[in-house]
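This part of the workshop introduces the protein records we will be handling. Getting from the letters to the tokens is the skill we practise here. The record below serves as our worked example for the rest of this section.

…
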Amino acid sequence: MLKIVRSSEPEIYSNPTFIEAKNMNNNRFIPLLKDILRQESQNRCVYCRQNVGITSKGNLNNFYPKSLYPALAYDWDNIFFACDICDRRKKNTDPILNGELTILHPVYDDIESQLIEKEDGTIHGNNTKAANTIDLFDLNRQELIDQRQRNRLVRMLIEDGYLEASSVINNDFYNNFVESIENLESMSSLAFPTDKQKNLHLNMIYANVITSLETYLSDAFINTVTKKNSYKRKFVKTFKDFSEHKFGLNDIYDKFDNLEKTITKALLEVIYHNIPKVKGMYKDTLGVSFPKDIELIYAAVTKRHDIVHRNGKDKTGTVNSVTVEEITKLITEVKNFVDHINSQLISK
């Protein structure tokens, strides 16, 4: 089981249209919620920790079953990303008996101290709740044991210096982008009883198209750069923010020892919807070019900022309305943009 750390609810939970749908137990937002959860768990099932494959789209799973606790159906701490197998096994099982939880909760429990992985790849629980969790999700089924044994071998090879950690990084960023866009496309055709609800809904979809692009640009760049030392070297030499770093010769060994951490920190802190900056990073570090005409992308990033931070208004106070046609056009543009980049990254 994955330990999930959550702070505040996602942006969507403050959207009036979502709040109304949530209160009515309407499932129209499930594709978007599932995508948020998938990104949170990095495309892994929260219960068995395995990557969810392309043939299995994964599921939004209720820890407290919707059939038994309808009021908690879309409560933020009650929904998780699950593979088909774990979702089926959990489904309508009530996790409460005599007022007490009978299985571990991904948010509230200390998972690592209660589910112990043995050298043979099996999982053992050190209390009744942990043992019940193992039984419910069949966490010792053979394919999971085999995967843990492979992971253990990889860790040993990395520790012994025979394998670079970057060579085993998850490389699902393109498939994740495609699934996210497909979810947004399906949501753009939903009908709403009032124009106000429709406008709020379309604004949210428009903003999330750019968020999907930003996530792809971030994941693709970070995964590709950290895969090879030559890319990391180029990033350090060409990243403009690093040119402002000054230090004395007596600090050089400390700086070198912490170089990996410095690179990782810089990669994670970049704002990936800053298209001009990211365009330069891709070109300078990877030799990957962006499409020549991306004016629509630039305009969409600005409009997304107004939707998210100005309640849909631009700097002059004018309300930006979004149409289904605009969303369709933006999705086409973003898909072409990502395909252009991804076709170059395949050979990297």
Remarks:
- The chain has two domains: 11-163, 173-345.
